[in-house]
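Here's what a typical entry looks like (DUF982 domain-containing protein):
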Amino acid sequence: MNSVIPVGFGLEWEFAVFVQDGLLDKPITGPRAALKFLHENFRHQTGAPFRAAIADCNSALRYRCDAEIARFSFIAAYADYRLKLDRR
């Protein structure tokens, strides 16, 4: 069975999320960039917020949930990650 799964690689959020990247703030503009950031920059890829952000970003890219839900999940995962870093 052949079928095409639509994927919104170019999908972007209305407002970028700015994350700290060294001394600079880096804009994360959509679910694809968020997934890349989560996989490449999170040393500790654990916790419910991280898993939710991965799932929601993947769902948004497949048009199965609103992209803004993925944005809020990414913000929650990033905040959780920063808190964990600050506690160490």
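Residues 29-87 form one domain.

More examples are in the samples folder.
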